[in-house]
UniProtKB/TrEMBL annotation:
It comes from the Eukaryota. Keywords: Hydrolase. Pfam families: 4HBT. Residues 90-163 form the Thioesterase domain. This is Thioesterase domain-containing protein. Belongs to the thioesterase PaaI family. GO terms for molecular function: fatty acyl-CoA hydrolase activity.
Length: 191
């Protein structure tokens, strides 16, 4: 049996959803900095391509905005598409797009976590991505993510990838996703 992830100390004790998000985000970025061990997430094996993608995504991902306000916590991330993300035609690979959505849409869910309730982030049940426009290498994108619903066992998350802008307007939508997750936390101890 593989040991579970070693999450940042104190994260689960705080009630502040935004603080949880920031701590988890910082921990994941630090975890993926090691280029000698790309994509290693707490003992979980990933395919070579997704390992490289995960590492390069975390190395280039930044948190732009966040809100823990119920009923739909949300966060926006920014990423510049790197040459490693290429699909062979100079655009973002569809599988890499799905990996970006998988990573980014999970983060806002951490704002709802507490001991015995989504503290480990769960695992993907479904990840439906609709590709609307090609994303050329070098493009900076914003990934807007929101928690649609979090129940005891299942959650529903949504993501929109769009061209980032610096003037405060919203760029064109490039891809969208619906992400369903299932909770894998061990049963909470009864008080």
């Amino acid at each position: 049996m593989v040991d579970g992830p070693k999450y940042p100390a104190g994260t689960l004790q705080t009630e502040d959803g935004v603080q949880k998000l920031k701590e988890y985000f910082k921990w994941f970025v630090e975890t993926h900095k090691d280029s000698q061990n790309p994509g290693h997430i707490a003992g979980h094996a990933l395919t070579l391509k997704s390992k490289v993608w995960s590492t390069s995504i975390f190395q280039n991902l930044s948190l732009v905005s966040h809100s823990a306000s119920p009923p739909h916590p949300r966060a926006t991330f920014r990423l510049t598409v790197q040459p490693i993300h290429d699909n062979g035609t100079g655009n973002l690979h569809g599988g890499c797009t799905a990996t970006i959505f998988d990573i980014c849409t999970t983060f806002p869910q951490y704002m709802t976590s507490r001991p015995g309730f989504w503290q480990h982030g769960g695992v993907s049940r479904t990840l439906n991505v609709t590709y609307l426009r090609p994303v050329p290498i070098g493009t900076t994108v914003d990934v807007e993510c929101e928690v649609v619903h979090v129940g005891r066992r299942l959650s529903s998350l949504r993501g929109v990838m769009r061209t980032a802008t610096t003037d405060g307007t919203k760029g064109p939508i490039l891809a969208v996703c619906d992400h369903g997750k299932v909770n894998t936390d061990p049963p909470a101890q009864k008080l």
